[in-house]
Description:
Elements: E1 11-21, H1 23-33, H2 35-40, H3 47-62, E2 67-72, E3 75-81, H4 89-113, H5 119-122, E4 128-143, E5 146-150, H6 152-159, H7 165-169, E6 174-178, H8 179-185, E7 192-197, E8 205-211
Parallel strand pairs: 4-6
Antiparallel strand pairs: 1-3, 1-4, 2-3, 4-5, 6-8, 7-8
Helix pairs in contact: 3-4
Amino acid sequence: MPEAKPQKGMERGTLLLADISGYTAFLQSVGNAHAADMAAGTFVPTAYPLLTSLLDGIIEQVTPPFTLSKLEGDAVFAFAHDGGAVPRGEELFGCLTRCYRAFRSRLDEARTLMLCDCDACRSIDGLDLKFVLHHGEYVVQSVAGSPELLGPDVTISHLLLKNHVTALIGSSAYALVTERAVAALAVPLERSVPIVERYEHYPPVQARVLALS
């Protein structure tokens, strides 16, 4: 069924979240392992500036065609209005794949620069990248000079970061694309796996999953 026209004041487009999975646990592990040295000011783990490098790499790959809304901890939130230059079909999957490869490249480089070989620092290998793509309506407001998106579809896209994809496909590197985004962007389905996610106060979300590794 085609989507209804957006209400007055609403805009429509594609919502993209690129989330570095495993980073919070990695950072906590490194902090616990080196708490004494860090408190003494004698050691700054490479893990700390690593996040900045990884996020910069993601932003470089997806903007443009997407517009950065904001950074959310270890995630990048971006959007593209309908009618813009957002890629479609295989080109879209190629964009996400290139971003993932660039992420892995930076991660490999960071691994060689690690000054410590303790178990906590070596757990950098557990980091990975996942994408959520949704299509819907939102209101754009300027906050401190940056576009802030609001609306139920924005909330849904964020809820989708918590899913059971890894249990389904056995990989933490993937693109979860809602059926609405599939239809709007002509996403190829040959390599995809169907999935349904359920969240309180929202109807079930039909989506497709494409593995990236």
